[in-house]
Amino acid sequence: MIARLTPQAGWPLVVGLLLVNLVLGLVPVAFVIATSLVIGAVPDAVTGGRNSPAWDRLVVSFLVASSIFVLQQVLAPVQVALGELMRRRVDGNVHERIMTTALAAVSIAPMEDQDALDALKEASRGIDGSMETPGMACAGLLALVARYTRLAGFAALVGVSVSWLAASALTGSVMVFRYGNRGGLRKYSAEWGKSLPNFRHYLYLRDLGLRPEAGKELRIFGLVGWLVDRYEGVYRTWLAPVWRARRRIYLVPYLGYTALGLAVAVLVFVLVARAGASGALSLTELALALQAIVAALLLAEYYPESDDVTQLGMLSVSALHRFARAAAAYPSAEMAATGAADPAVEDQTGVRLEAVAFSYPGSHRPVFEHLDLELEAGKCTAVVGVNGAGKTTIAKLLTRLYDPVEGRILFGDHDIRDFPLDRWRRQVSVIFQDFVKFELTVAENIALGAAHVPPDPERIRRAAARAGALEFIERLPGGFETPLSRAYVGGRDLSGGQWQRIAIARILYAADAGSRLLIFDEPTSALDVRAEAAFFDSFLDLTKGVTSLLISHRFSSVRRADTIVVIEAGQVVERGTHDELLAEGGRYERLFKLQAERFTERTESW
């Protein structure tokens, strides 16, 4: 997997770093040869004096060894710099893939699947908050070239100077150590993966103590001590199994690897000592063999530039693949219809849901089994019901975040699946309960309601005025150009009600830019009673001539709608105007009066 990822850094960089690592692998071998020649030349140079040929050979050998040492010091930072460049390029590409994969699904289903969402978060965390990233893994893989080139070179020196039996035993010993090291790291990584649920709990508690919005209640309710105890407990629960696994993985096996390494080292040194004692080795050959053996044995150690990063650095890529597989299980591709119908050219028309059945992916409980609902053209239809009745699900179906399992949704005479997805969504604008608070300027936050057209300052201002946001916007230091976050210079935070007015302005801007179906899902949940009443007093004027759907659990909020629909257990149980439904004396009448009584009681208590 790492080898397939590495070319994303660009072949010139890959080849350049590969050559640098190859040279860095050969340079220590050449240094051992040069220093052995220096050692071997010392006796003759001392005997012959400074003007002897032996002295000249000593000087030349010393200069060569010094040059090789300098070359190694020069190439080491070059290796680090090129590795860092590779890390940035590869990590940048992987980060882009994470964003692309996350946004590629036209359905919202993968983002509401907890397993898929966990994989996506792990992939992102592996890039942004990890010491081991995919880019580091690619650089670490190429760094192994230097290590194993050295091993091959030192083994060759031992084979030439002592025996190939000694060279083979030495190489085998080093590789056994390396196998044990990598195998232990793989097992440890698997144990680490098992600990991720506890790790996520640990991160939640850690972040909870650092979040400003949680700070007030933690202190007021006296929860600081509880949080510290809970944090420490989860920390131990997370790491205790990992520590036990680490002892099991590394302790006993490494005793065996150490014993084997010592035995092989003793064997090789005995062979060298015997050859030296018999006079079969010159001083140069003896120095060569001893340096090569020690240097080769040192290569059995942990490689900090490669081992952790090549094993752990690809976790984010693996997590990304898991998310991609989970996303592929949902019918996103089929949703991006290639139909030639264009909703923009349809005459003013309403929307009809006919015999719609739907259940969320992975759930066996149907939200709707046979839902029939009509949104009349140019009028406001309100949908009310208790929590869990499926009101927000209707908004998701109309915006094609999901498609019905059965039945169809018609816009005029066309099934909305006949329209290209992007064109259909340009005709629909929605404000959800959990609308996005973009850390952008006021103008940008509003203009995103119709991102497919160039921002129009006049329309932006008009939408803000209609949403009742113009007054507080003009009080901001930069007006419409004020960033809506204190994280930016000149930025400001807004209250919940002010943010809701910005979101309402966003949907009204979309309507002004041509959206023909407006969906308001609890649009006033953060407004106070007076502001909410004022909004709904003008609501029909704001949406006049546009087909709109108003979703609410507050019955008093929808009384001015042209048509009110009561949904219960996934079915339309009542339909009519406010006065008609009150006259029927059914569910709407009972729930409306119940809410009105509670409001009256609270008002009287004030």
From TrEMBL:
Specify where it is mainly localized: membrane
Can you say where in the cell this protein is located? Cell inner membrane
Report the superkingdom from the record: Bacteria
InterPro entries from the entry? AAA+_ATPase (IPR003593), ABC1_TM_sf (IPR036640), ABC_transporter-like_ATP-bd (IPR003439), ABC_transporter-like_CS (IPR017871), P-loop_NTPase (IPR027417), Type_1_exporter (IPR039421)
Membrane topology recorded in Swiss-Prot or TrEMBL? Multi-pass membrane protein
| One family name in Pfam for this protein | ABC_tran
- Domain named ABC transporter: which ranges? 351-594
Alphabetical keyword list: ATP-binding, Cell inner membrane, Cell membrane, Membrane, Nucleotide-binding, Transmembrane, Transmembrane helix, Transport
One term under GO cellular component: plasma membrane
Where are its TM segments located?
A: 12-39, 151-177, 254-273
A Gene Ontology molecular function term for this protein is: ABC-type oligopeptide transporter activity
Annotated family: Belongs to the ABC transporter superfamily. Siderophore-Fe(3+) uptake transporter (SIUT) (TC 3.A.1.21) family.
UniProt-recorded name of the protein: ATP-binding cassette domain-containing protein
Taxonomically, what lineage is the organism?
A: Bacteria, Bacillati, Actinomycetota, Actinomycetes, Micromonosporales
